[in-house]
């Protein structure tokens, strides 16, 4: 009964999608095999779900629906899906928290090269039924694999499934009474599968590093040959020097090399954080203060920069009970189990701030105010919409440069922003040199495409970052939107090595194809034109 | 003139080595091509040098000489050597500081499987002319590539060649007046090429992580196809999320996947360290105190354990001006730019120590005493020789377990040690769970092989570590001596993935073959018997 309903839903989907005429049989057979292998509640074939999984957070493109979403509940489920995908040569895309920004988990367009950047707004929002034509695809959701398998409190470790979010892990640890937490804080809702996939970070990277540090110790991974490996085997010691760590291949692989089904993560002691903030006459003086704070070994956890425009948005949204000066502002956090320690460090910070022309440091009086300040920082993304009012859309850029080049980046990109006529407020993980300019825009009445200045400005920022010895992707990964910069940034040799590894791990090119690197050199060549 | 001398020296070597009759032509031609391509001062063909490069630090086996050592002075030199080795199918082994312990840079034995563990003492020390028969091999020394190419002080980065040592980098930084240092402190004399190759650590891993953290940001690598890549391209931003980081493949690869010719390393602010020490009634109570110190977020830099036997050696050597109690002793370091901060943390440590039954904490009164204490810790390795007197030899083991299993490891291995009749004092990076037992022994008059109990005890320790969810190699790598444990520890799937990556990067199997993983599955199988 459930099956026949599913089958008729499938037909509806299939008739809806343009690929049917191209190669209906393989995907139809694969879907039928999935239906035989899984109970109906583990499969989604309805248009609504397929569309939801076909659209990225913050994307304004029409959805790119897969043929089916499978909700895995175990490693065995993942193996089954891999085997069916390989057998029928169907594109397979793992997905966890769906918070990625660069099109990481979207089914590929049916045509090569993709007719348009899948993330940049095409503005066809209002035609609700419209979708982008996609290649027949199975999306494999790991979000139901959301168990915390073990907490090894003495060892500062947890073993989690890929659908566990960093926030839910931290909530669970608190509930269990452990004074431990996972300190990397990317987007709210991000889950470990995707966090490993993208290899990003958040506001705590100054103190704790990124996902690429030693937070992920072992991973169970399903390979495209159906093998289940554990990159550290049975081991979970804090250190290991047993050859090259194959787990590192999957960090930042954006689901293109294997499917992560469990992870051993390291935890940090949960200690109080104290927030403070101040503002400076210029970005250059803010950078100078930050370099001194880091260089003095004062061990801040977070060092964030917001420019005057960002602060204006925060003031408009009344994110804090007081108004801030609309000038380059540094928000910072220090942590220690001992309040005296933080206070001594903050005294030194006050001196450094004064020396660099900053206003007097405003230090949170208590935990509540610290939380309030950091909450305001995290809500800044939303507040900036008030800067241009209703209908505001955002393209969030993500470059990173050596901190010695950061002031130059901001200054030179200011000219690009001015030239574009757009607003692009800055929120930066300044301690890491990671600058997000949020390009704000609206669609004019009757227009379906974002103004061309938006994509043009984003491209200028990426290229400027590479020119300044930086990267086009500080923490959001590559997906489909940044592939075009990789040859310039990493060089042909490194790109070629990535391609060789991809071919070795996924010889049929079925696993999240076209993410991070183009599927073929021809496609890359054509994308330039 | 120089050439003819070199050629006659070559003939002398060749006549000396047992491989000549097997396949003289390929190596002879390769050596001749190297002589044509390099000035004589970049080539070593003399028996003394070949023997020196054919023996590992702490190894008592007869030397395993290569046919030639090439001293590279540039990336172009490395490319030339790679191309000649590939053209003539000659085994090629990169080597830097020669401080590795597991046979990492030794030429492979001419026979497969190797007749004996290359590191375990065969005791044939006194027959000076005797060597182990080796496969025709080029050793490529990177030790002359010892330039610090750039220091980016504001960014906390240096660009170094692989022959730069961590100590010489730190000395140079101090001379240049930078308040920065590279915090990972493996063996004295270790150079960056090998440090990346082994992926180890040292006494500072509690505070700074290991070589596998984010200390190595980009690497220039020569691949076996002669390509020179830079794993981060032109970028040197602190963070990057541009796909999987190919540089991670070379970390821990022990020179088997590519040859590193320059590295961008991250530096830490140089801040004062304060040392303290105390002892406990048992290893279990020491572990309990250490877990509490870490869990409280007191951010120690180092947490080291020495057992009563190790302390006895230190006392005998008078490494400190006072005698220490011969019981499990924890030596620790805390760092901060602000002395008050360290003092506040140490007050808390004193409480934790007392609570766990430790003796009153002895805190260094000044920098000089801190340096003295840490110097004693570092000299401990030598002092233990006094425990059994002249002729003492050491097999240094290197297991790592989750800290929650450390007391159990020590307790159970104590029984193995007792059973062996040997002395095996402990020095452990206790904060990481990394335990070195130094197995001490002597050769009896007329004996040429180490007592069989030595190898037997080492093997028991490795197996016990794996049983306790640990690893056979905490920081010294695998080389040839630990390969036999990898299948049990990492599992067949992970080992197979390593093998596939090796085959992709070095399809001819010429680059440091048989290190980390066996050259063939057959060889692995035979090694069991």
Describe this entry's structure for a reader:
The structure is a homodimer of 529-residue chains. Chain A has 529 residues and is α+β, with helices and mostly antiparallel strands. The first copy, chain A, folds into five domains: 2-141, Uridine Diphospho-n-acetylenolpyruvylglucosamine Reductase, domain 2 (2-Layer Sandwich), CATH 3.30.43; 148-269, Uridine Diphospho-n-acetylenolpyruvylglucosamine Reductase, domain 3; 273-387, Alpha-Beta Plaits (2-Layer Sandwich); 388-477, Alpha-Beta Plaits (2-Layer Sandwich); 483-527. Chain A has 17 helices and 19 strands. The first copy, chain A, has helices at 2-16, 24-37, 47-52, 75-88, 166-175, 192-198, 205-208, 247-250, 283-295, 308-316, 339-355, 367-383, 406-420, 452-467, 483-490, 492-505, 521-527, and strands at 43-44, 68-71, 91-95, 137-141, 148-152, 157-160, 180-181, 216-222, 228-230, 259-266, 268-269, 273-279, 300-306, 329-335, 362-363, 393-396, 399-400, 426-429, 434-441. In chain A, strands 12, 13, 14, 15, 16, 17, 18 and 19 form an eight-stranded antiparallel sheet that branches. The first copy, chain A, has a five-stranded antiparallel sheet with strand order 5-6-10-8-9. A four-stranded mixed sheet of chain A has the order 1-2-4-3, with helices on one face. In chain A, β8 (216-222) and β9 (228-230) form a beta hairpin. In chain A, α2 (24-37) packs antiparallel against α4, α9 (283-295) packs across α11 (339-355) and α15 (483-490) crosses α16 (492-505). The longest helix of chain A has 17 residues, at 339-355. The N and C termini of chain A lie far apart (51 Å). The model of chain A is unreliable at 1-10, 18-23 and 111-127 (pLDDT under 50). The interface between A and B is large, with 103 and 103 residues. Chains A, B: GO terms for molecular function: D-lactate dehydrogenase (cytochrome) activity; D-lactate dehydrogenase (NAD+) activity; FAD binding. Chains A, B: Residues 61-270 form the FAD-binding PCMH-type domain.
């Amino acid at each position: 009964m459930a099956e026949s309903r599913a089958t008729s839903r499938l037909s509806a989907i299939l008739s809806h999608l343009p690929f049917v005429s191209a190669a209906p049989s393989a995907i139809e057979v694969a879907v039928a095999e999935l239906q035989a292998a899984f109970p109906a509640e583990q499969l989604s074939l309805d248009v609504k779900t397929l569309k939801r999984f076909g659209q990225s957070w913050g994307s304004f493109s029409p959805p790119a629906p897969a043929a089916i979403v499978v909700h895995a509940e175990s490693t065995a489920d993942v193996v089954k899906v891999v085997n069916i995908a390989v057998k029928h040569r169907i594109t397979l895309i793992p997905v966890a928290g769906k918070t990625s920004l660069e099109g990481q988990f979207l089914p590929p367009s049916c045509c090569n090269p993709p007719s348009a950047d899948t993330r940049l707004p095409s503005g066809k929002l209002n035609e609700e039924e419209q979708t982008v034509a996609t290649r027949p695809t199975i999306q494999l959701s790991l979000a139901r694999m959301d168990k915390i398998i073990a907490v090894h409190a003495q060892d500062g470790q947890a073993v989690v499934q890929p659908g566990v979010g960093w926030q839910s892990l931290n909530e669970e640890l608190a509930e269990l009474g452990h004074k431990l937490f996972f300190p990397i804080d990317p987007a709210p809702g991000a889950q470990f599968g995707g966090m490993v996939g993208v290899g990003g970070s958040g506001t705590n990277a100054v103190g704790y590093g990124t996902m690429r540090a030693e937070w992920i110790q072992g991973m169970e991974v399903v390979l495209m040959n159906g093998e289940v490996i554990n990159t550290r085997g049975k081991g979970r010691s804090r250190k290991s020097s047993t050859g090259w760590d194959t787990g590192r291949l999957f960090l930042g692989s954006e689901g293109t090399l294997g499917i992560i089904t469990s992870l051993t993560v390291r935890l940090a002691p949960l200690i109080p954080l104290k927030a403070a903030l101040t503002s400076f006459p210029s970005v250059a003086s803010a950078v100078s203060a930050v370099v001194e704070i880091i260089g003095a070994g004062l061990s801040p956890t977070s060092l964030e920069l917001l420019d005057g425009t960002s602060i204006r948005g925060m003031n408009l949204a009344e994110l804090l009970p007081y108004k801030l000066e609309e000038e380059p502002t540094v928000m910072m956090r220090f942590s220690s189990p001992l309040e005296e320690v933080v206070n001594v460090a903050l005294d030194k910070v006050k001196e450094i701030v004064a020396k660099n022309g900053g206003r007097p440091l405003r230090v949170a009086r208590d935990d509540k105010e610290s939380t309030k300040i950091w909450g305001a920082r995290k809500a800044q993304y939303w507040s900036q919409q008030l800067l241009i009012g209703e209908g505001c859309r955002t393209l969030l850029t993500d470059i990173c440069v050596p901190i010695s080049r950061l002031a130059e980046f901001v200054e030179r990109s200011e000219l690009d922003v001015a030239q574009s006529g757009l607003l692009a407020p800055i929120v930066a993980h300044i301690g890491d040199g990671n600058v997000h300019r949020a390009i704000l825009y609206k669609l004019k009445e009757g227009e379906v495409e974002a103004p061309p200045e938006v994509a043009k400005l984003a491209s200028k920022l990426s290229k400027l970052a590479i020119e300044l010895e930086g990267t086009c992707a500080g923490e959001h990964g590559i997906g489909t939107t940044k592939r075009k910069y990789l040859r310039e940034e990493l060089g042909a040799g490194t790109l070629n090595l990535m391609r060789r590894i991809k071919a070795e791990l996924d010889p049929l090119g079925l696993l999240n194809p076209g993410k991070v690197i183009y599927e073929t050199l021809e496609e890359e060549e054509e994308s330039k034109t």
